[in-house]
């Protein structure tokens, strides 16, 4: 039987993704770095969120027996690792205080974690609804 995630877990997941994204973006907005640097970090964040959802979807599809091409599966993982590498290199070379670097790293990680859990909750909710519908038709 598929069980729908609790409202508390769904809410916590949304709070995590929104807090991470808002914290990261507000930090960029208030930063004294050049606009091209802000654009770099913003792009890495958006690419990271997309990659995290893609990895979660591929892994879940494989578990559920839904076909996933090896190229898409591999690209999803490479993309996720690349965003982490890009953020690490960018922060390593940035002229920011160590506390600012840590802030961006943890806001990024919180955003990615939140995106993965929101995607998982969405899939779990859909699976629970599909299971309910199939039981009703019996």
UniProtKB/TrEMBL annotation:
Q: Which is a GO BP term held by this UniProt record? A: DNA damage response
Entry's Gene Ontology cellular component terms: plasma membrane
TM spans, by residue? Answer: 7-28, 40-59, 71-91, 103-119
Q: Name one Pfam family in it.
A: YiaAB
Q: Which residues form the YiaAB two helix domain?
A: 9-61, 72-124
Q: Which UniProt keywords apply?
A: Membrane, Transmembrane, Transmembrane helix
Q: Which InterPro entries match?
A: YiaA-like, YiaAB
- NCBIfam families per record: PRK11383.1
Q: What is this protein called?
A: YiaAB two helix domain-containing protein
């Amino acid at each position: 039987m598929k069980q729908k995630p609790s409202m508390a877990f769904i809410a916590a997941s949304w709070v995590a993704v929104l807090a991470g994204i808002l914290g990261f973006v507000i930090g960029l907005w208030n930063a004294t770095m050049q606009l091209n640097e802000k654009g770099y970090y913003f792009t890495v964040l958006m690419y990271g969120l997309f990659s995290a959802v893609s990895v979660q979807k591929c892994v879940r599809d494989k578990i559920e027996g839904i076909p996933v091409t090896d190229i898409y599966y591999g690209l999803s993982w490479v993309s996720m690792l690349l965003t982490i590498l890009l953020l690490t290199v960018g922060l390593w070379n940035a002229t920011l205080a160590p506390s600012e670097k840590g802030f961006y790293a943890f806001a990024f990680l919180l955003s990615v974690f939140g995106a993965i859990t929101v995607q998982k909750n969405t899939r779990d909710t859909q699976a629970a609804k599909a299971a309910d519908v199939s039981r009703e038709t019996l």
